[in-house]
Amino acid sequence: MSPKNRTLKAGLDHLLTNGNQKIVFGALKKLNIRPYQPDFEDFLQEARLTYARAYVRFPRNPESDLKEFRMFAYQAIYWRTLNSLKRQTMVKNWQTAELSTDVTNLPRQYRCSSREQQVLADDLFQRVYAICTPPEKRFLYYRYVKQLSGREIAQREGVSPQSISKRRRKVGQKALKIIAENADN
Hints:
This is Sigma-70 family RNA polymerase sigma factor. One of its GO terms (molecular function) is DNA-binding transcription factor activity. This protein is mostly helical. Helix content is 72%, strand content 0%. α2 crosses α3. 18% of the residues are buried.
């Protein structure tokens, strides 16, 4: 079959034969995309479509040159998915940069009994926020500004609740360190 006569439907049909699904799952596994991740199904569907596109674009006959085609399809899936992951990372970094520029204008969701305590709380928040990693900054933003629960933050971030608990502990340790430094002065 010449490349001009091949269709995406034929590519998807080919995917379902001869154990070709292994190619899709292998590429996703190499990129550490696992079935328990919230966006796994999206990546899986995109990888299947990429396989079908590779079937259409392959310059020779995929049935007769099966080994070469499988390598071709694997690389196509790998690179396409890697680009998607990079795009997601760029968006997260952009959101983090946006958060860091807005930290001085955060609404006060935590209330203190006196003006002096409010100023001290704001100062502590700013100082802790300044030394946090990007995931910890997102945790602070979601927890203290948006007032989301740990489970809601985990869902939004696409991580486990244990990861959010770990971030909370690290942020708490950093806050305690700053408080201890102030007590020494």
